[in-house]
Amino acid sequence: MSEKQPPQHAEGEPAGRAQQPTPAAEETAAIVSVDTAGGVMEPSAVPATAQSGQLPGGPDTLLRKIFTGSGMVSVLAVLLALIIGGLLIASTDKQVATTATYFFARPTDFLAAVWNAATRSYIALFQGSVFNPRGNGLAAQFAPFMETLTIATPLITAGLGVALAFRAGLFNIGAQGQIIVAGILAAWVGFALDLPMGLHLLLVLVAGIIGGAFWGGLVGVLKARTGAHEVILTIMFNYIALYFLRYLLNTPAFQRPGESNPISPILDPTAVYPQIFGSQYRLHLGFLLAIAATVLVWWLLNRSTVGFEFRAVGANPKAAQTAGINVSRSTILVMALAGGLAGMSGVAQVAGTEKVLTDGVAATYGFDAITVALLGRSSPWGTFAAGLLFGAFRAGAVQMQIQTGTPIDIVLVVQSLIVLFIAAPPLVRAIFGLNPRRRKPARPAKSREAATTGGAA
Q: What is the pTM of this model?
């Protein structure tokens, strides 16, 4: 019998330790196995890691998480909507139409005209919503930004109401009606009661929040007790609130004396939001309350037991109920809270911006809040940022039309495109190449033979 030779080791290295491959050796062996199909094929000229289509650093790197996360998808969706909106703006420009007639002779003229038309409109949009260097003095130059914040205030609070319901698995399409009911109660307290300053404004705010919470909570009760779908309920409640408002504005209790138009008396000075930077801007206390509401919703969802129940119900109601969570109570509570947040928008309208109650008190804020919540991915701070963006669109659209003649409806088209792309994240990732196909690693030849032998046996 031949005597077996002991394995050779490096000097001073234990035998047991030398038998265990290092992590680098294991990674190299895995790459070689994938590249050569377990030793059956010859090694390729391009390493297997370069063939996988992944971003450098592997699938779990910070770079990949940033570029494939939901936040980046939202940003790219806005960018893509702005690009398409720029093309639509160019299609309405006279210079673009002129250069298009001799496109094949000088295509650069056409491309330059398209670029100039889009950039002129977006510069005007920026000047009308963020900063206007043509303003007379620093106060006038920052006036567009203050107007953006003013318009964004009801969008933020109503968007938070929609986003909170989304996180609990409910579709709150009734922010419009909740704003109206809140505006009714807040306006009545504002012009019908004579109270001291501070107390009067506090009651206006509380009345508006209670009105919105009641209108939203009523939907939650019907949903929890009867199983009625909240989308149908909230849409119907929007119409009920609107026609109820129109009725009230034609009654002596709400119609301004001596007026035939449906408009309420002006709210008392003690019942209106104070303006943050004085009378030169319309920005009022409601914006600070919107920031506070954002912080509150963030804390509620991420740091409280109630918020955990909301998220659990939104993820899987049956599993949440099995775990001991009262799904009916959570449904009623989340709809009431969502209605209260939307009610803050109604208060901001009647006590902050308009200071009167009309049948257009909600405008389209309740419906735009759905888009804001979608763009913000139903997160509190994402909704806040989306509200600012849509406020900028609204504030700058008028200036864009005045300076360049671009139709104001282009902004609505851009907002609609944002919703479209937000609803289709795989499309956005595919357009920007952020969703590469991962190459499935080949099984080693020995594993395939073993599987085949086992299957034959």
A: 0.79
